[in-house]
Amino acid sequence: MHSIEIPEAALKLFIPENLAECERDQYLDMCALLYQVATGSISFEQMKVQAVYRLLNIVPGRKHDDTFDDMDEHQKWDNVTQLSILVDSFFTDDNGQKVIRQDYTHNPVPKIRPLLKNYFGPADSFTNVTFGEYNDGLRLFLEYSTTGEYEKLYLLAAIFYRPKKKWLWLERKKVDYNGDVREQYNANSIASRAAKIKQYHPGFAYGFYLLFASFQKCLTQAVIPWGNRELDLSILFDADAAGESDDEAVPGIGMDSLAYAIAESGEFGTIEDVRNTNLWEVLIRLYDLKKKDLDYKQNEKDNAIN
Fold first, then answer.
1. In 3D, which of 232, 274, 240, 276 has the Cα closest to residue 256?
2. For position 243, what pLDDT does the model report?
3. Which parts of the chain sit beneath pLDDT 50?
4. Which residues, other chains included, contact 35 with Cβ-Cβ below 8 Å and sequence gap of 6+?
5. What is the pLDDT of residue 305?
6. Residue 278 gets which letter from DSSP?
7. Cα(279)–Cα(287) distance, rounded to whole angstroms?
8. CA 189 to CA 171: how far, in whole Å?
9. How far lies 213's CA from each of 86, 94, 144, 284, in Å?
10. Is residue 266 within 8 Å of 239, Cβ to Cβ?
């Protein structure tokens, strides 16, 4: 968190260093601005200035502003311009290209209320998500990344944001209650929910896309502690580690084939049972299967050399 002091106004202000530090409203406003930059609606420098206003809750042109109340417009603009430099910390530099820092897996917007209807999103680190939700979401995530069709983002959010269970109070009394307040995932209800989500904050859909991207980055790059061991889940997504061609390594297709492999083993039941199983349970099992397969192939290669 950036801490800024403005002596002439006797002010001490705080600006988030990245999306991970944003509060709910800050996150939504920033994501709206980031989407505008991504689509070329505003320039990068314009976004930085507008971000300062949003992050500090300053209303441009308002004569009496709680933040810079004792300053004239020239002083106010000068301070905002200087503070805009701090927004650079939201990005990393990749060969001259500004890339959004995505190193968070907590959900900044756990609940939304479009058209007076509450929808609840995934828990932090997607701990209450089923494999079916994730797999369908991954497919839409990849489609948007390829086509840039914004409608895909509403559908993506609609997969994960759902109404509360009708008989939640009874569910909570069950021994096997998993803590998920959302109604069971049904792929057939996505479109109608997406139409309602479309009426919500303009930064929400893109914001959830960025959260999903950050979570996906965690899965494909991070080493995750699990029990008394560490799991490198990148082997589920890495074409080189899996010995696959680029075409075979498309994550959405790969997840489908791995899911069918588990279903064939009968460990979780049918393919529909696999889809209804908690994402992390399936990922851990997929990791074990993949690791054994890679170890077997390595042993065969070593024996062939010897």
1. 274
2. 46
3. 63-64, 240-253
4. 202, 203, 206
5. 75
6. B
7. 12
8. 22
9. 23, 17, 11, 20
10. no
Q: Find out whether 222 and 167 touch, Cβ atoms under 8 Å.
A: no
Per-residue pLDDT, 288: 83
CA dist., res. 204 & res. 5, Å (int): 31
Nearest to 56 by CA among 88, 31, 23: 23
Helix (H, G, I), strand (E, B) or coil at 187: helix
Instruction: State how far the Cα of 123 lies from the Cα of 93, in Å rounded to an integer.
Output: 30
Distance of CA 271 to the CA centre of its chain: 26
CB 236 within 8 A of CB 252: no
The residues with which 98 forms a beta bridge, in sequence order, are 93
Per the listing, tokens 């260093």 go with 17
Helix (H, G, I), strand (E, B) or coil at 43: coil
3-state helix, strand, coil in the chain (%, to 5): 55, 10, 30
Distance CA 47, CA 277 (A): 41
Taking the CA atoms of 281, 286, 289 and 290 in sequence, report the sign of the dihedral they define.
Answer: negative
Q: Give pLDDT, residue 167.
A: 77
Rounded CA gap, 230 and 277, in Å? 22
| CA–CA dist 42, 48 (Å, integer) | 10
Distance CA 267, CA 305 (A): 35
**Is the torsion defined by CA of 4, 5, 9, 14 positive or negative?**
positive
DSSP assignment of 98-158: EEE-----S-S--EE-GGG--EE-PPGGGTT-BHHHHHHHHHHHHHHHHH--THHHHHHHH
The structure tokens listed for 53 are 């206003």
8's tokens: 């002439």
Taking Cα atoms as reference points, which of 152, 160, 151, 215 lies closest to residue 185? 160
